[in-house]
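Input sequence (257 aa), recorded before submission:
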Amino acid sequence: GLDDKVLTDQNGLALEGLAWVARASGEARHAAAVRELATVLADRHSAGGLLRLPGLPAVVTDYGALACGLLAAFDLLGDPALVGRAAAVVDEAVSRLAADDGGFYTAPAGRADLVRRGREHLDNAWPSGEAQLAVAAARLHHLTGARRWRDIAAGAVSAAAGMASRAPANAATILHAATLLTDGVVAVATGSGTLAAPCRRWHGRNVHIVPLSTCAPTGWACLDGRSSIADEQLLVCRGTECLLPARTPAEALQRLA
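Predicted structure, token format:
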């Protein structure tokens, strides 16, 4: 009676959940579990494309859940390689699943075992894959500043807007994506990055935590003009507007609040 399938989408959801547990607990064993699971799932994305199971190509929920999971792992671990992997996942989803209205099909074209390519605008027993891709793209926009990520997120939000307006109780994930587009906040920790630690316990879902100590070489827009800051600061910014620098953990939490 053992279901021994290791599905990419279900494990992507687990990765995001574990990252939140690790942020709340601050325990090394939880962080180690996040790092291990992120590595296992990232290995499912090779030159041949993302897999749902060995030998079975991914569907939209695999792409969406994995991208969100990898970005949640970044907020915990501060490893910019995780952002690069998430970007590659979203890029592949666009190339294989994109629909003309800005949203996404459930499965790639050319699947002989499917009668038609379905769509999934709303959440069900798990978050909508299309909506998770919108969330991931919005987060990538706030981190990197690249306009194309914003366009991808806005396209998916627009595609699902009609269904979301009729059934908002089933549209939490796409509504989250819409909120992220306007209210995403980036918290940049300079110096050695010690002020990132208290921020990781912050409960806000729209806050992206960027330690300059590991992310300086990326060239992300959120780091423009900050690579030379040597002292310990936390800069909390929405778009191009930033609050005064925080220099203590208490000030950092105050800025986030």
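Checked by second reader. Residues 164 and 175 are 8 Å apart (CA to CA).
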